Amino acid sequence: MAIGMNDLKNGLTIEYSNSIWRVLDFQHVKPGKGGAFVRSKLKNLRTGAVNEVTFRPGDKFEQADITTRPMSYLFAENNGRVFMDVETYEQVNLPDDKIEAALKFLLEGMEVKITMYGNEILGAELPSTVSLKVTETQPGIKGATATGSGKPATVETGATITVPDFINEGETIIVNTEDGSYKGRA
């Protein structure tokens, strides 16, 4: 289905410039002189690159048919990860470079959404928050509050997260998977 600049909205996936893009942000601009246009921020779902693109009134593009399938992470294998479709039990091996951002918070048995364009796998979408065990950090400070500057902590997946001073090794914390920030104790 061909769509134009007035049909853009956040989250829409389009086929543009020989790739698949997700609209992250857009703004209709009507200057005092000249025609209206749309300034948009697009994320390439194949490479992860974010570009700013300006669309003019005559520009047309196709809406991309993106599907998501729930899959469970099983184990690491060579340079990839093995996932199982929770409905069909079919196993799929995804290369690490396709899901690089998700690897910091991926645990065995975790259910993720795999994004697909036809038969091409574009990536993995984690839940918005995950509970992870702190494996290494400095000892907690008695009487410390959450408003302090924080300290680095390594979690069971190997990622390093800034946590409040009162968090100790062995505690389970909730982490935001989008920005890697501490959200609280589990």
Automatic annotation (TrEMBL):
<dbReference type="InterPro" id="IPR001059">
    <property type="entry name" value="Transl_elong_P/YeiP_cen"/>
</dbReference>
<protein>
    <recommendedName>
        <fullName>Elongation factor P</fullName>
    </recommendedName>
</protein>
<dbReference type="InterPro" id="IPR020599">
    <property type="entry name" value="Transl_elong_fac_P/YeiP"/>
</dbReference>
<comment type="similarity">
    <text>Belongs to the elongation factor P family.</text>
</comment>
<dbReference type="InterPro" id="IPR008991">
    <property type="entry name" value="Translation_prot_SH3-like_sf"/>
</dbReference>
<dbReference type="GO" id="GO:0005829">
    <property type="term" value="C:cytosol"/>
</dbReference>
<dbReference type="GO" id="GO:0003746">
    <property type="term" value="F:translation elongation factor activity"/>
</dbReference>
<comment type="pathway">
    <text>Protein biosynthesis; polypeptide chain elongation.</text>
</comment>
<dbReference type="InterPro" id="IPR015365">
    <property type="entry name" value="Elong-fact-P_C"/>
</dbReference>
<keyword id="KW-0251">Elongation factor</keyword>
<keyword id="KW-0648">Protein biosynthesis</keyword>
<feature type="domain" description="Elongation factor P C-terminal">
    <location>
        <begin position="130"/>
        <end position="185"/>
    </location>
</feature>
<dbReference type="Pfam" id="PF08207">
    <property type="entry name" value="EFP_N"/>
</dbReference>
<dbReference type="Pfam" id="PF01132">
    <property type="entry name" value="EFP"/>
</dbReference>
<dbReference type="InterPro" id="IPR012340">
    <property type="entry name" value="NA-bd_OB-fold"/>
</dbReference>
<comment type="function">
    <text>Involved in peptide bond synthesis. Stimulates efficient translation and peptide-bond synthesis on native or reconstituted 70S ribosomes in vitro. Probably functions indirectly by altering the affinity of the ribosome for aminoacyl-tRNA, thus increasing their reactivity as acceptors for peptidyl transferase.</text>
</comment>
<dbReference type="InterPro" id="IPR011768">
    <property type="entry name" value="Transl_elongation_fac_P"/>
</dbReference>
<dbReference type="InterPro" id="IPR013185">
    <property type="entry name" value="Transl_elong_KOW-like"/>
</dbReference>
<feature type="domain" description="Translation elongation factor P/YeiP central">
    <location>
        <begin position="68"/>
        <end position="122"/>
    </location>
</feature>
<dbReference type="Pfam" id="PF09285">
    <property type="entry name" value="Elong-fact-P_C"/>
</dbReference>
<keyword id="KW-0963">Cytoplasm</keyword>
<dbReference type="InterPro" id="IPR014722">
    <property type="entry name" value="Rib_uL2_dom2"/>
</dbReference>
<dbReference type="InterPro" id="IPR013852">
    <property type="entry name" value="Transl_elong_P/YeiP_CS"/>
</dbReference>
<dbReference type="GO" id="GO:0043043">
    <property type="term" value="P:peptide biosynthetic process"/>
</dbReference>
